[in-house]
Design a protein that fits this description.
This protein has helices at 10-16, 139-148, and strands at residues 2-9, 35-37, 41-48, 80-85, 106-114, 120-128, 156-159, 165-167, 172-173, 175-177, 186-192, 195-209, 215-218, 238-239, 252-266, 269-286. It is mainly β. The strands form 5 sheets. Strands 8, 11, 12, 13, 15 and 16 form a 6-stranded mixed beta sheet that branches. A 3-stranded antiparallel beta sheet has the order 1-3-2. A hairpin with a 5-residue loop joins strand 12 and strand 13. The protein is rod-shaped and about 90 Å long.
Length: 292
């Protein structure tokens, strides 16, 4: 059986395997079978049944199974780990010492966070031979983590209504309901390594694809229609259909896409992020038949 060694983040190993893993600064492999960890990464030995030597094509030991050539290094999810000395230190007979004696290194609380919108955090105690070198925390990474915790959604469309019927040549008023998750403002913060970043998100525009080949860009949530407005056009977000939806199966497919603009600051830095969300609705458009 051919054995490959793939480097992955220690946090990812913990999230996918049920066996305990302890990171060591100077102590070499942990002894957990095919898993060998240092402070920030683990190497997992992967067996390939039926292979007795080098793979066809000359793939080296960093390649993935099946000759894919993947190195296993994935920078998509950036991991941020911070450490804090446990005070007081655990008793001498505690398993947290991992077989070592008090005074031989120390036990630290390790906090690791990674992932994008579905990010995760692991907090655990680890024994280290030497004080860890804290990773520099990127405020931009914390800003994205704060945004991911906001649960930003697409527009909550109030008009056009799916149950409504609209008329060719008659102005349609479009507007959305406003809440923290569908329009903003929405605020959140994230912390790591003594750095805290705060972020505020708000929808800056909504683009309406009307289903008839036209689009309308609205800078605000739109103005709700009232009967006193009669046949007037919306002052800020409206559309007039020039044909019925009969050729579109009876209803036009309308898409409202919101652009969230997020301003953040912290850790001596500031910046801006953008997120896009959309909502699909339908609009039935008919025409008035004149009887003579």
């Amino acid at each position: 059986m051919l054995t490959h060694r793939i480097s992955i983040t220690a946090a990812a190993v913990l999230a996918t395997l049920s066996i305990p893993v302890t990171s060591h600064a100077k102590d070499g492999p942990t002894g957990n079978g095919g898993i060998h960890c240092d402070l920030y990464t683990c190497q997992v030995e992967v067996g390939v049944p039926g292979q007795g030597g080098d793979q066809a094509g000359g793939s080296d030991s960093t390649g993935g199974t099946g000759g894919s050539g993947s190195s296993g290094d994935d920078d998509t999810d950036e991991t941020v780990c911070t450490y804090e000395l446990v005070e007081p230190q655990p008793p001498a007979d505690s398993a947290d010492w991992d077989g070592h004696k008090p005074g031989d290194g120390a036990v630290y609380e390790q906090t690791c966070g990674w992932g994008g919108i579905d990010g995760n955090t692991i907090v655990r105690l680890v024994w280290l031979a030497d004080p860890p070198e804290q990773e520099a925390v990127d405020p931009a990474v914390l800003a994205q983590r704060a945004v991911d915790s906001m649960t930003l959604l697409g527009p909550d469309v109030a008009s056009p209504r799916a149950a409504g019927t609209y008329t060719v040549g008659v102005p349609m008023w479009m507007w959305v309901k406003q809440s923290a998750t569908t329009y903003g403002p929405n605020t959140a913060s994230a912390s790591a390594g003594g750095v805290t970043v705060s972020a505020t998100a708000k929808v800056s525009k909504i683009v309406w694809e009307m289903g008839d080949g036209t689009s309308v860009t609205c800078a605000g949530p739109g103005t709700p229609y009232t009967s006193s407005r009669g046949m007037a056009r919306s002052p800020d977000c409206g559309h007039v259909y020039s044909k019925t939806s009969a050729s579109a199966g009876g209803r036009f497919a309308v898409t409202a896409t919101s652009t969230w603009t997020i301003d953040w600051q912290g850790g001596g830095q500031a910046g801006q992020l953008t997120e896009v969300r959309q909502t699909d609705v339908q609009a039935a458009v008919g025409e008035v038949q004149v009887v003579r």
